[in-house]
Write a structure and sequence with these properties.
Length: about 350
Amino acid sequence: MKITALKTHLVDVPLERPINTAIHSIRSVGCVLVNLETDVGLVGQGYLFTINAVRLKSFHEMVKGFEHQVVGRDPHYVTGIGASIWSEINPTGYAGVTVSALSAIDTACWDLVGKAAERPLHHIFGACRDRVRTYASGGLWLSQTIDELVDEAERFLQQGFRSMKVRVGLPNAASDFERVSAIRQVVGADIELLTDANQALTPKRAIRLGRMLEELNVSWLEEPVSVHDLAGQADVRRALDMPIASGETEWTRYGIKNSIEARAADILMPDLQRIGGLTEMRRAAALAEAYNMPISTHIFTEHSLSIAGSAANCISVEHMPWYAPLFNEEMEIIEGDIIIPLRPGCGFTFSETAIARYSLT
């Protein structure tokens, strides 16, 4: 099997409503969809994204710039393809658009490997489970009122979720506490609540908020401080009994290694796009396991399920519905778990109807 063409589509998928976190205002997700065509008729797929489609063309140009590294090669040599790209990006660096482009290509290669074998990727990687705990992450935003938070939490329960994430990070910790408390009251004690400050707090403010949230039996505080302040995050971790989750903004396994060595997190959250694709995600998971640390994958839910099904230290995946309109297949949630599909490759394929609907080109 040989890759005969690298083809792309640029799309912009609007959210149901504009949303705010402590540091983001989001109205859409712009994506570069990557298709690797082969001489046997199989197509491998991957994608990357930017918030509000900002600078999407830059990401697209970077993907197309690696066309010479994949066309004519056997996708089974995915590690070799990745090594070639890794060497080529040395002058421009191992973060940002370079690694994001590598990620989409790497994931598409693995998708081809699974399709050629007619097996799901978590079986090829070495399966450990066929379902994984998930949490609802597509709601409970800072831009919502308390009444809206309560209504949405109830809808999440009706959809089968047993865990959900609330955004925090307001200037007044008491306001954050009030909002999370209202959700706790409506969902009850048995439902897991997670919180995410999106890097908005100083270490002292994070510690103060964390101690308040511990009264509500919150299971983790995510990204409490700036991604550049690992020492400050380590201070927060030491001060709280509640676990600290972080790592989504780390690039490649080396960023994850820095977080581990700084003792800045209890739970690591590698992001498929920033980590560098499924190859690098597996390395990051193995690195975390060597330190007896769990991982919980960040967004890219559909394509991260192969990691969740094959990394024994993966405790959950983030259910983010932003990209669901792009796929023909739907994620299945049963009693708080996502069922990992047994379809070949990643198990999800791009919808031509969706591409036409959301196309930017």
